[in-house]
Amino acid sequence: MKSTARQITEPAPASTTPDVIHLPYVPPPDAAPKKPKRQKARFVGIRFDDAGFDEAQRRAREVGLSLGAYGRQRMIDDAGPRAKRAPPTETSRLRATHVTAINRIGNLVNQGIYALNRIDPESGARDRLADEVAAARELLQSAMPALREALAAVLSGDDRER
Known about the structure:
Helix content is 51%, strand content 0%.
């Protein structure tokens, strides 16, 4: 049985390769045209002065619509299919209050750490460092009751929907 050995050849030197390699044109595959994501494709901009804008917002709020839905309702008698949304429930308001309280605590902690990192320990400002630590401790101490209350309410399940 005779085996044929594969011949290994050296690559061609760079001087013999062409500067430009011409590839044949391959058209892109035919794709279905994309549908626009928004069904409402037209935009109407209306300019208000401050008093007119406040009045328009007040009227829209009275009927429970956004400003855009209120404008559509007044102009073409159709506010749109999703114009009226359910008002927030007490549970969602309570949850938002808890999240806000927790975020405030995190913000205060970050501010304290930032203040401590701004102090150059080699500048001989030990008194200033002590003052900054005391101020940071005050900020954190004043925020702790709100954090405890928010965490206790979340852990007890007061904000869960029944």
